[in-house]
Design a protein that fits this description.
- By secondary structure, the protein is α/β, with parallel strands linked by helices.
- The chain has one domain (about 45-340): Aldolase class I (TIM Barrel, Alpha-Beta Barrel), CATH 3.20.20.
- About 40% of the residues lie in helices and about 15% in strands.
- It is built from twelve helices and 13 strands.
- An eight-stranded parallel β-barrel has the order 3-4-7-8-9-10-12-13, surrounded by six helices. It has a three-stranded antiparallel beta sheet with strand order 5-6-11, with no helix packed on it. Strands 1-2 form a two-stranded antiparallel ribbon.
- The longest helix has 22 residues, at about 195-215.
- The protein starts with a helix and ends with a helix.
Amino acid sequence: MREWQYRLAKNILFKFDAEQAHHLSMGLLRRAEKLGVLRFLSGGCDGRKEVECMGLRFPNAVGLAAGLDKDGDTIDALGRLGFGFVEIGTITPLPQAGNPTPRLFRLVDDEAIINRMGFNNCGLEKGVENVRSARSFKRDGGIVGFNIGKNKLTANKDAVSDYIKALRGCWGVADYVTVNISSPNTPGLRDLQAADDTARLLEALKLEQARLMDESGVRMPIVLKVAPDMGEAQIADLSRVFLDGGLEGLVATNTTIDRSAVDGRPFAKQAGGLSGAPVTDKSTEVISAFHSHLGDKVPIIGVGGIMNASDAEEKLRAGAKLVQLYTGFIYHGPPLVKSILDRLSKS
């Protein structure tokens, strides 16, 4: 897809409510994939600059972040757009509707989004079924991540059981699992980022991982997703937890609750997580800080405000091994994926 084609499509989609536009575009992608149209618009995972990470071979370093394909029902279509990996979810053990609408807002002048979706998803059973139904992407070597969270009504003291259920349910279905403890839209979830709580959760997950590996003979790396809203002391504490606990990967970062970069803008006071260009530098700083403690022992997937190829390169220079797109993909579409892949192929 050429830039002018996506600009035209975006101009139409942005006339709709943000969540309506999301559902419309995802539905059109699925339809276009079934009709065989997408294969003529993009070469999909082309294998340029393969990356070895977490014991997996990624066709390229550019992935789609969790949050766009919440139910995992659009994997094959998204795979046609050039992504080397697609992370679906966040999926919770039980289906849930999420927060009341409206809950998704565009800050167009800032190329940003605020969302308070609240883990709206189809639930573990259906999510697993959807990933199993994805054919062409995995056949062509694409990597699928399964992002898991706790249900809203599950108290933090019982959160471990939700994550264990989700890990057990998706085992062997995807290629890696991401444990989301950083969304600002599930009350109290970020409290699990306290070092002691993270250590307990990681210990339980690693024990279950070892049991499942013994039973199945299948290996599935565990990744944690963290917020950008933390200081150096917390980053240092969490880094020790990750190293001691044998974490296999880190997604940095989720959305921010900080509004300083968009103060006074329309929708800036809406509750939820802010993503897009205002988060670019904050996310890169957190990646760099974690990498200074973790080195290459825990590979980092860098996400947050990647709006162009230079932003992706900055994340990689800061210490990320792979990158993911979300808001940048909404504003710039498939041409953004291609431009990053083209830049990385020359580096």
